[in-house]
Amino acid sequence: MAERKLLIIDDDADMRDVLRLYLEDKDLDVTEAGLGQEGLKLLRSKGPFDLVFLDLRLPDLDGLEVLELIQAGGYDVPVVMMTAYSSSTQAIRAMQLGAYDYVIKPFELDEVGLLIDRLFEHRQLAEEVRLLQDQLSSRDARDRIIGLSEPMQEVYKVVGRVAGSSATVLIIGETGTGKELVADIIQQNSPRRRGPFIKVNCAALPETLLESELFGHEKGSFTSAVAQRKGVFELASSGTIFLDEIGEMSLSTQKKLLRVLQEGEFQRVGGSTPIKVDVRVIAATNKDLYQEVEKRNFREDLYYRLNVIRIDLPPLRTRHDDIPLLVAHFLDKYRYAPDMPPVKISEDALQALLQHDWPGNVRELENTIQRAVVLSQGRMITREDLPMGAPPARTPALPSRVLDFTDALRRGVTLQQAVAEVEQGMLRAALDMAGGDTVEAARILGTDSAYIRSKIEAYNLANIRQKEGA
User: Fold this and answer.
1) Is the peptide bond preceding residue 396 cis, with omega within 30 degrees of 0?
2) Label partner for 469 (CA 20 to 30 A): which of 27, 81, 123, 448?
3) Rounded distance, CA 7 to CA 31, Å?
4) pLDDT tens-digit profile, the chain (470 residues)
5) Which of 274, 275, 272 has the alpha carbon at shortest distance from 221?
6) Which residues lie closer than 8 Å to 396 by C-beta, 6 or more apart?
7) Residue 454 bridge partners (DSSP)
8) CA 312, CA 290: separation in Å to the nearest integer?
9) CA distances from 278 to 214, 217, 238, 259, 260 (A)
10) 3-state secondary structure string, 326-373?
């Protein structure tokens, strides 16, 4: 690998000497400048540089002015500010202007060494993931599998082996780990990529509607069946179907799906004529289907039919090394304006992201970065732009109105009535937070969407929400 080139811009000759000797011991090529204008000339004449150390106070130009000129000049080089003054205002301003990080004088040389090592490691990983993305590119360059950690390397191996076949695939992973994205990659690299690719969320439809969606129906097969309708299995013949949240499928529908997988045929709802199809099935779930089999919520024979090729997606908390790569990807995806370069993120903000557990996985990280890009208004993202500064989530206390047990008993409230009141309140709040999405509401409440739908019907919440929205 070519020798790394660094530029030091500082009017303190002793500081430059100390820093230069330390960096040269790390096999780095160091160039020095005592003035801001001199440093800018060196950037033009001896660049490109891999890193710039820039003093905040210079005789001719303010360090922040030099930083702005570096950014305006289009030099793709990270800048570390050096200052003897630990003003938070100056530090934040430097981050907003695009500085990679800052160090306060006097600093430990080993601290500088760690900063440099971390920077170069992140840049090397970014280059490696770019090469990997070229191999696993999708139709939309903004949507790719990101990660170089060992768990993700295992995912890539399985995806690479299975994509060229027509084998049934079962993708297992927590909500937000990218199951649909993996299905997209498999489809785009399969022999069926020119055929139909239809996605069905099994948790989004009631049982009767899901069967009609999958297998179609004959005219008159039920009250609203005013005409014959083809289902997605018929429409996707010679292509692929992605069945998301398959763990939510009813046992009755599971039986009909099993027939398709075993015999390659099905009947429309209300029909009697077998219809032959050639369809590849990719299924996904955030549930442990083997446990669901033991609970008799999922057919064992269907489980083994689906589990021909299994891909387990790791949660983000087990692959924190991939967070810098994901952050860089989302910064590129959510540019503040289409014609602007990706927003940069401060080292302090990146550390906050690395320390978070990410219960919502990659989807939560993506939403966090998108929000931060908006809040930073296209400038450097600092820790203040992230929600990580809030205290760790803890189990919230129930409203005091509910906890006034004595008053409730005096009013003649029974235990069953109190439980129902709390349950309805929690359901209303979760549905409101989820925008009416039962799957997301189930995730918030730590239960499954089938239970949510049953309680919506039991408490007539759908009608209440309709009235509220009217």
Assistant:
1) no
2) 448
3) 5
4) 457 899 999 999 999 999 999 999 888 999 999 999 999 999 999 878 999 999 988 999 888 999 999 988 888 889 998 887 655 567 667 777 788 888 888 888 888 888 888 888 777 766 655 555 554 444 444 446 788 888 888 888 888 888 888 899 999 999 999 999 999 989 988 889 889 999 999 988 888 789 889 998 888 777 777 788 888 999 998 999 999 999 999 999 999 999 999 999 998 888 888 999 999 999 999 999 989 999 999 999 999 999 999 999 999 999 998 999 999 999 988 988 888 888 889 888 898 999 898 999 999 999 999 999 998 887 889 888 888 644 343 334 444 444 456 666 666 667 777 777 788 888 888 887 777 777 778 878 877 777 787 788 777 776 544 333 33
5) 272
6) none
7) none
8) 14
9) 14, 19, 5, 13, 9
10) HHHHHHHHCCCCCCCCCCCECHHHHHHHHHCCCCCHHHHHHHHHHHHH
Least Cα distance to 293 among 282, 305, 281 occurs for 305
Please list, residue by residue across 241-253, b when 16 or more beta carbons sit within 10 angstroms of its beta carbon and e when fewer do. Answer: bbbbbbbbbbeeb
Q: Residue with structure tokens 């908006």?
A: 374
For residue 232, the Cα-to-chain-centroid distance in whole angstroms is: 28
Beta-ladder partners of 9: 33, 54
AA identity, residue 141: A
* CA pair distance 160, 186, nearest whole angstrom: 8
Contact residues for 311 (Cβ-Cβ < 8 A; gap 6+):
155, 158, 159, 162, 169, 170, 171, 172, 182
- Residue 277's identity, in one-letter code, is V
Cα 210–211–214 angle (5° rounding)?
A: 85
The partner residues of 79 in beta bridges, in order of sequence, read 52
- Token pair recorded at residue 193: 């990529």
63-72 vs 36-46: helix axis angle to the nearest 10? Answer: 30
Exposure on the CB side of residue 3, measured as CA atoms within 13 A: 12
User: How buried is residue 304: exposed, middle or buried, by Cβ count under 10 Å (0-12/13-18/19+)?
Assistant: exposed
Torsion of CA 202, 288, 265, 191, to 10 degrees: 90
CA distances from 357 to 3, 286, 443 (A): 37, 18, 16
